């Protein structure tokens, strides 16, 4: 919606949207999805200020752009809130209940509902955590896919328009990975290994080599991909109608809340922002995949370094972090100098203040309830 002036006479939000940042096939499918008047998740408001519409019981009224925006955002965030609730329920309730059932039938896995610790056989624990982490992401992703009915061509950006922006996003993710580990790096614990696997809800004391490798490959590659399908396919696509910055911001907030751990919230938000921005700039969701994979690989590298019990470990770790950070910043600056500045993001120009749009997203039930549950979980993990 370029070059629009406020209080314009004719409004057609679908046609006025800036589709120039992506490729032709994507734009065609996205526009067709938005034009469906029967789609409650599509923002396709049209208005001629000289005309009015008869509303039974209210008489002739001029359609409200604010009401139209708020209604569609509310519908979208209602579904997102339910998807988040599914994630939390599977992660915290179904998972623990499943352990109790398996334990009852003699399977070597045990846990307390009030504790994150899990005990038992290594194969049982690894299998359990792979199953729970897979389901908690996959089930809500499928739910949103069914509800939003966004075409695959829109949910899955697959044309790499600008490969340099993928490299740029990966470099930024490396820099963020280094920065977000700094607050915990001198915490006096024996090893970052324990902290790393605690964030993955695992009990490292029972891990053998085979199980460690299996879970590591799953976590770094498979879980990273399906997580990005949740955030930057299912959640991001319908929100993009209101501009890339709005969609990136809301998706990052969702990611931060679902981290459910104060130590992981900054990284979750920043990595999600970089993944979404990189996807838009490059044109492909593969960029988001690589951003999260590289982030997980960096965390694993820190784990491996931390297992060294010699006095040289601290020097090796700090040198490793410094080299990666310098390389990342240098890569970003080099690409910026070589590529120059260009318009990458689709913007939504509206007469409605951004604050009202955000308010509509925040108050859409059950999103505020789920957000409170996530914040409560963060607080409890800090206290307990």
Q: Can you put this structure into words, describing what you see?
A:
It is a single chain. This protein is mainly α and 384 residues long. 67% of the residues lie in helices and 5% in strands. The chain has helices at residues 13-16, 24-35, 65-104, 122-148, 152-155, 163-185, 192-199, 209-239, 244-259, 265-282, 286-306, 313-339, 354-362, 367-383, and strands spanning 10-12, 46-48, 53-55, 59-61, 109-111, 118-120. The strands form 3 sheets. Strands 1-2 form a two-stranded antiparallel sheet. It has a two-stranded antiparallel sheet with strand order 3-4. Strand 3 (53-55) and strand 4 form a beta hairpin. Helix 4 runs parallel beside helix 8 (209-239), helix 6 runs antiparallel to helix 10 (265-282) and helix 7 runs antiparallel to helix 11 (286-306). The longest helix has 40 residues, at 65-104. The termini are far apart. Mean pLDDT is 84; it is low at 1-6 and 186-207.
